[in-house]
């Protein structure tokens, strides 16, 4: 009887383990679905795509999630004419992918992977024959993109995305493309509130025989982000780019929705304020050793952030600029107000909204939710700005702060301005200032090219130079600026309602009014005095 009892106990134990594993697997499947639903919501919120369909079928040991996306043509429209003809049809295609989810507690056991976790997710992209044929011309028999996502027990996970390298050439059109691949690693915590990112793109080259060349090398992005006590995201982010080259052989019209691109990269909506349009004329541009870094920290209810941006060299046709260094800080920002303002701005719909109306909505929202930022003594500091230019050096350092602002100050412009404190030192090449003035004058006097009477641009430029020379001569005689070896130098200080430029006091408009008010109230006007004298003689 003893062996039978042992077999019964062993069987019961084994059965209990299977039941326990099955229950843990079911629990892991439920939790994995919650995590993947959060990921889907983040994807759906991106303006780059629109969700066409989405479904999730959860099983006991595995599940399937299917999503269909289409490109948001409002974003891609301005850039589509720069793509090869056989790539453009891809923008009309539906992107369908399926997440094959294996549940825990040992989701990779079938592949002899014994690392514990909620689930192991492999993403498979479904493509039409025409789309796969187009991509095969670039990637050959390699998958265009592979995505693996390991979900941990704590709700976080590790995401790994890879795009393989390829060489592509069209003999007839003269188009060449060389892509050196892309690798993204994302280590995220529960709720995606804390994450570490590392993305690397070794390089890209696009040559079009008739249009020009676009290339970049050594793009790397890293970040380490965590939530602060106030709700503001803290940490560091850094982008480095080795080289960028652009050689355009023909004019290209452009209309760039920078506000939407900024939102796509930073989740910050900036309205319609920075959307340039115009024309890229034939030119050669190179940028070397570009880098930016942002560090954000927190102290009590206040947030401090510091950003650095620099590059070694920027060449535009025959003009060389660089090195350039920018180091700027924003200190003592009220964290709860930043969070409230970000949420309010994020709720403003911007796609398809009239720019004028959108601009008003942004301004009204900032007025309503952003005032506490000014009431908590914020300060912006330009620690350094330096740019080597073809005709000299541009330098700027200084600070701008608000001190002791009260709600009542907002109703009185003069009192509101008195709360500001400004210090700045500036050095600028005279030739650069002259070039800016001439460019502005040419823009001001340019008329329709079809008009019969065209302005003489040489006379316009001479007039602009003479006006600038006269103004600079006056400022130098009044000692507001100093010119030394082609460099114009000055400094500005403002505090307590007192403004000085190059240590010389400058009367502000309301000071002149205040100075005149007592004299007008105590002394009769000359006309009244004359009238009284005449009456006395009579």
Account of the 3D structure:
- This protein has helices at 2-44, 73-76, 129-139, 258-266, 335-346, 355-369, 371-375, 413-418, 430-445, 457-477, 509-522, 526-537; strands spanning 49-58, 62-71, 94-103, 119-126, 146-151, 157-163, 166-170, 175-179, 182-188, 195-208, 212-227, 233-248, 252-255, 277-280, 283-299, 302-311, 313-316, 319-321, 324-334, 379-389, 392-402, 420-429, 482-484, 487-495, 498-501, 504-506.
- It is an alpha+beta fold and 538 residues long.
- The strands form two sheets. The protein has a 24-stranded antiparallel beta sheet that branches. Strands 13-14 form a two-stranded antiparallel sheet.
- The radius of gyration is 32 Å and the shape is globular.
- 11% of the residues are buried.
- InterPro entries: DUF945.
- This is YdgA family protein.
